[in-house]
Amino acid sequence: MKKVAVVCNYVLRPDRIGGMDRFFKLFDEQLKKEGYTVDWFFTNYTPFDFYKNFTIYSAENLSVEQKILEVAYHQKYNVVITHFTELCTSFYKEIKSLNSDAHVIAVDHNPRPLKGFPLKKRIKKRIEGVLYSRYINQFIGVSQYTVNHILNDYGSFLKNKTKVVYNGIDTDVFEKRKAENKNKFIVASHLRASKGIQDLIKALSFLEKNLLQNVVIDIYGEGPYEKHLKELTTKYHLENLIFFKGSSAKLNELFCNYSYMIQPTYMECFSLSILESLSANVPVITTTVGGNLEIVKNRENGFVYRPGDCKTLATILEKVIMGKEEIKEDTSILIAKEYNLSKMVTNHINLLP
Questions:
Q1: Which domains does the chain have, with CATH numbers?
Q2: Which of 17, 160, 274, 304 could lock onto 249 through a cystine, CB 3.0 to 4.6 A?
Q3: What 3-state class would DSSP assign to 71?
């Protein structure tokens, strides 16, 4: 029986069951149907029901790369798949030395800085591409943007073993938008500077106060920037319309309560939050970064603007709030057809040798 190791630099949390968690679950089920046994390696895991049928190694005080290397001294794997790890590091050479016949697939979900990496890091990545790419059989980008950056970062010579496999979501778990939720906006994001939520707060401060009387902005998520964002909210006297909700494991049930999702991000590969929002027929207001433009078409299923352009974001919000701009098409149709979870899982199964 063939054995697969899936290595994920990802923390499992019962209060945050998102798109990747649902992918992991369906992928595990499908691998087992195909006759594989599967070991999963995660950054941290305290058992809860969603993952009860998995075989999981929790890295705890180690990195996930160190954890699988520890296990791989005693356990041989036919396939090793990585998610959310850094590409082209010495880890890939080490795992090949322990499992010389293993087929190694590196899935890149990692966003790049808006202005690119500094010169020193660009040089380092090119050198790592030359040294360690030979130990990776396939490079997978979750968007065309990601594939372009893999080739730019590590070398265009990797083109023949690099391809796009788009993320997908379980569209069946998302309730559709309700009619009575006008001018209710949701933000679903980790709270750090690169997510640009400070720009949203600043954009709101440009609008007339009477325009904001019936506006609600609910922010779901946690992170190191939360204190600063709350301070900005107070500074601009927006406490009556911006509400910090913390993390939620039920975003799939919550999106339908909103008219738009706002994602003012500076960095993105291919956002699951955008797919989830559109699946609930909730259009998206977001930036032109990463793979966003591969899914969001301006004035068709959302509105886009340049990252950091608070004035343009304010103008979009003003027009939406006043009813001068509106997305009328059902945004869920495209997601159900092209970005569903079953398609994503099938595409990942098809990568196996």
A1: 3-169+341-349 (3.40.50.2000), 171-337 (3.40.50.2000)
A2: 17
A3: helix
Euclidean distance between CA atoms 266 and 291, whole angstroms: 12
In a 3-state reduction of DSSP, which class is residue 62?
A: coil
Residues 218 and 329: their CA atoms lie apart, in Å, by: 24
Residue 268 near residue 290, CB atoms below 8 Å: yes
> DSSP per residue over 276-302, as a string?
HHHHTT--EEEES-TTGGGT--BTTTE
**150 near 141, Cβ under 8 Å?**
yes
Query: Dihedral, CA atoms, 306, 310, 315, 319, nearest 10 degrees?
Result: 90
- HSE, side-chain direction, 13 A CA sphere, residue 340: 12
Angle between the 341-349 and 19-33 helix axes, to the nearest 10 degrees? 50
The string of DSSP letters for 306-344 reads -TT-HHHHHHHHHHHHHTSS---S-THHHHHHHSBHHHH
Beta-carbon-side half-sphere exposure of residue 166 (alpha carbons within 13 Å) = 18
- Which residue, among 169, 185, 192, has the nearest Cα to 267 in the 3D structure? 192
Crossing angle of helices 272-279 and 19-33, in 10° steps, is 90
219 touches 187 (CB < 8 A): yes
Q: What is the full per-residue pLDDT of the chain (353 aa) written as tens digits?
A: 899 999 999 999 998 888 899 999 999 999 999 999 999 999 999 999 999 999 999 999 999 999 999 999 999 999 999 999 999 999 999 999 999 999 999 999 999 988 889 999 999 999 999 999 999 999 999 999 999 999 999 999 999 999 999 999 999 999 999 777 889 999 999 999 999 999 999 999 999 999 999 999 999 999 999 999 999 999 999 999 999 999 888 899 999 999 999 999 999 999 999 999 999 999 999 999 999 999 999 999 999 999 999 999 999 999 999 999 999 999 999 999 999 999 999 999 999 99
**Residue 251 is inside which H or E element, if any?**
helix 251-254
